[in-house]
Amino acid sequence: MYSTDHLDIPPLASAGGTVQLPGSKSISNRVLLLAALSTGHTDITDLLDSDDTQVMLQALATLGCQVEHRSNGEVRVHGLGGTLPVKTAALFLGNAGTAMRPLTAALAVLASQHGGQFDLSGVARMHERPIGDLVDALRQLGCSVTYTLNDGYPPLRLGTGEPTELTIDAPIQIRGDVSSQFLTALLLTLPLAARTRDIHIDVAGELISRPYIEITLNLMQRFGVDVKRDEWKRFTIPAGSQYRSPGRIPVEGDASSASYFIALGAIAPCSPGCDGISIKGVGLASIQGDIRFIEAARLMGADLSGDASTLHIRRGAWPLKAIDLDCNHIPDAAMTLAVMALYADGPSTLRNIASWRVKETDRIVAMATECRKLGALVEEGPDFIRITPPASAEAWSAASIHTYDDHRVAMCFSLAAFNPAGLPVRIEDPKCVGKTFPDYFETLFEVCQTPPANIPVICIDGPTASGKGTLAAALAHRLGYHLLDSGALYRLVGLAAERAGLATDETALKAENQADRLGELASSMQVRFTGDHILLNEEDVTELLRSESAGMAASRVSAVPQVRSALLGLQHDFRQLPGLVADGRDMGTVVFPDAALKVFLTASASQRAQRRHKQLISKGFAANIDDLLADLIRRDERDSSRSHAPLRPAEDALQLDNSGLSIEQSIDQMLIWWQDKTAFPKV
Ligand SMILES: Nc1ncnc2c1ncn2[C@@H]1O[C@H](COP(=O)(O)OP(=O)(O)OP(=O)(O)O)[C@@H](O)[C@H]1O
Ligand SMILES: Nc1ccn([C@@H]2O[C@H](COP(=O)(O)O)[C@@H](O)[C@H]2O)c(=O)n1
C-alpha cells in the first residue's frame, strides 16, 4: 500500500493483463459477524484484509470471539452461538459502516438478553453518518440505546448492564430510504431474538440499495436462517431461527472494486500483445449488486464478456457513449461511471444517488469538485450529478485530487491518467484505499503501460559518501517511487569478479580480454533485489557489498566500458510506474539523460570522511578516518578522470552542497525542486 502524502500517476497509455480481486468488503464483514453469532466454527476463505475488516475482527476479538489466522490463509471464527462472554467493552469502529451498523444492532439485542453495556465510536466522519433510524427500530424492540454525543449519530452506548425484556410482538418499523445497512443490521441480528415466535420487519419508504439486502439474505441462508420476504416491504424471521456454521465459506471478489478494472478495460487501448483486462474472483454469477455495473459499462461501450467467476473487458465504443442512468441499484460502483463520463461523447447524468451524500464523504460534492478540477463541467443536484467531459484535450488540467478519506474517490480518479492531454494525476492520501483494496495502485500499475519517457526519474549523482543513497532512499519512500542504487550494481560486479577469480587491479585490467571477461560477467550475473536485500546468485550479499573494499573494487571495474554497457539495460529496467529515484555517478549524464530532475550532491571531503567513518563504525566495521579520507579522495579522482561516463554534473543538474545541511533539510530542498518540476498546482 502507498502510505505517501500523495501519489503522482504518470500519464498512462494502455492496459492489459489479469487482475485478482481482493474479497468483497460487504460479504467479508457480514460473514465475520454471522460466523461469530453461529454455533460451531467457520473457516472463511479469501476474506478481505483491509481497514474495515480489521476493525470488525478487532471488535469480535474484544467481545471474546476467538479468531484464528490459519497457515493456509483461511480465517477460522469460533462462533459464540448467541452467548456474550464479555459484558462490557468500548469498540472503536473507524469509518466502517459495515461494522458500525450491524454491531450496533447485534450488541443492543445481546446486551438486553444477557445484561451488558457497550460503547461504540468511530472517526469524526462516522459521527456525522446518520444512524437514528436504526436506533429508533432497536428502541421499538425495547433495547436501551443512548446517544453519547449528538442525537441521531454515533457514538452510542448500548445496554444498561442489566437484562431487559425484548418486545417482539408488533412488527418492527425501519426506514429503507436512507441506508439499506439499517435493514441489514436488523435482519442479521433478529434471529437471536426469534426463539419462540416470528419477528416481522416492515420497511417504511422506498428501500434503496436492494442488492445489498439480497446479499444479506443469501448469506443468512448459508448460515441456516431463511428469511421470508414479501415484496420489499415485509421481512419475516421465522420462530426457532438459529445460526449454524456452514463449516467453510468462500468470500467472492469485491464487485465494487471490479468496477475500476472494468472501466480500465473500457477506457484503455490494449497493450501490445495483450487482449484487454481479465478479472478473476468475481463474475457473472456474483451475488453482489454491484456486478450490475457491467450493464452500465456496456451501455457506455465496454466490450465485456465473462463466466461465473471471471470477467473480460476490452475497449469497445470510443469515445465512450454518454448515459443517463438511474444508479440506485449500484450506488458504490456508480462513482466509477462518473470518471468514465470524462471520456464520453457528451454529458452523462447519474440519477437517484442521494445515498452518496451520507457515505464516507458527501460523494456528490466530492465527485463534482474533483471532476471540475480535471476540466469537466459538472452540475449537481440533491440526488444526481451531470458530467460534461472536457471539451478537448487542451481543456484537461493536471489535477491534485483530494480524496476526502474516501477509498472510492481515490480509486476512481486514478483512471483520469488516461486523459488525452497526457497529463499526470495526483492522488492525495492514497492510503485511504486501505479501507477495501490496500494494494489497489500496485495492482493498477501491474496492468498499465506507458512509454518510459512518461515515467518520471529523479537522478542524484555525486562523489562517494555525499549522502546520495540516503537521500535517494528517503525521496523514493516519500514519493512512492522505485529506487535504483546503481553503485550496488558495480559493487556486485566487483564481488562477482572476486568470486570468479578475475583480478580487477590496474595491471590485470590491462591484460587482453580481461575487460571483455568482466563485461560478460556483468551481463550474466544473477541479481535479485528483494526489499532491502541484494542477492547475487541467490546469496544474500547486502552486508558484504557495503564494505569499503567492495566500494574500491566497484570503482575499479566501473572504469571498464564493457561493464558499463552490460549494466545499462539492467538500470533502464528500474524505470517502472509510478517513478524512479536513481543514485550514482552517471545517472543524469548517461543512464537517464531525460530525467525530470537531476541533482549533483556534494559535501566537503572531510565531512564525507567523517560521515563514512560514523556509518561504518555504527555497522560494526573497523574504520580509520585518515584512511577513509585518503580512500575517498582516490575513489573520487578515479571516478572523475575515467574516460567513460566520468563523475561530473549533468549540464542541467542542480547542485546541492549539503556539508552544512541535515538529512531532513536536504530532503526538503529536493522536494521543493521536485514540486517545481511537476505539473500540479502548488498547495
Ligand atoms: N546531510 C547529511 N548530514 C549528515 N549526514 C549525512 C547527510 N547525508 C548523509 N549523511 C550520512 O552520511 C553517510 C553516507 O551517506 P550515503 O551512504 O547516503 O552516501 P552515498 O553518497 O550514497 O555514498 P556512496 O556513493 O559511497 O554509496 C550515511 O551514514 C548518512 O546517514
Ligand atoms: N552510476 C554509478 C554508480 C557507481 N559507480 C562506481 O561504483 C562505485 C561504488 O558506488 P557507490 O555509490 O556504491 O559507492 C563508485 O565509486 C563508482 O566508481 C559508477 O561508476 N557509476
UniProtKB/TrEMBL annotation:
Give the Enzyme Commission number. 2.5.1.19, 2.7.4.25
Record's keyword terms, sorted: Amino-acid biosynthesis, Aromatic amino acid biosynthesis, ATP-binding, Cytoplasm, Kinase, Nucleotide-binding, Transferase
Q: Which residues form the Enolpyruvate transferase domain?
A: 17-444
Binding residues for phosphoenolpyruvate, per the UniProt record?
K25, G97, R129, Q181, R363, R408, K435
- Record localization: Cytoplasm
* GO terms, molecular function: 3-phosphoshikimate 1-carboxyvinyltransferase activity
- One Pfam short name: EPSP_synthase
Q: Where is the active site?
A: D332 (proton acceptor)
Q: Gene3D superfamilies annotated for this entry?
A: Enolpyruvate transferase domain (3.65.10.10), P-loop containing nucleotide triphosphate hydrolases (3.40.50.300)
Question: What does the entry list as the binding residues for ATP?
Answer: G462, P463, T464, A465, S466, G467, K468, G469, T470
Which PANTHER family does the entry mention? AROM/DEHYDROQUINATE SYNTHASE, PENTAFUNCTIONAL AROM POLYPEPTIDE
Role summary: Catalyzes the transfer of the enolpyruvyl moiety of phosphoenolpyruvate (PEP) to the 5-hydroxyl of shikimate-3-phosphate (S3P) to produce enolpyruvyl shikimate-3-phosphate and inorganic phosphate.
What family is it from? Belongs to the EPSP synthase family.
The entry describes its oligomerization and partners as:
Monomer.
Mind telling me what this protein is named? Answer: Multifunctional fusion protein
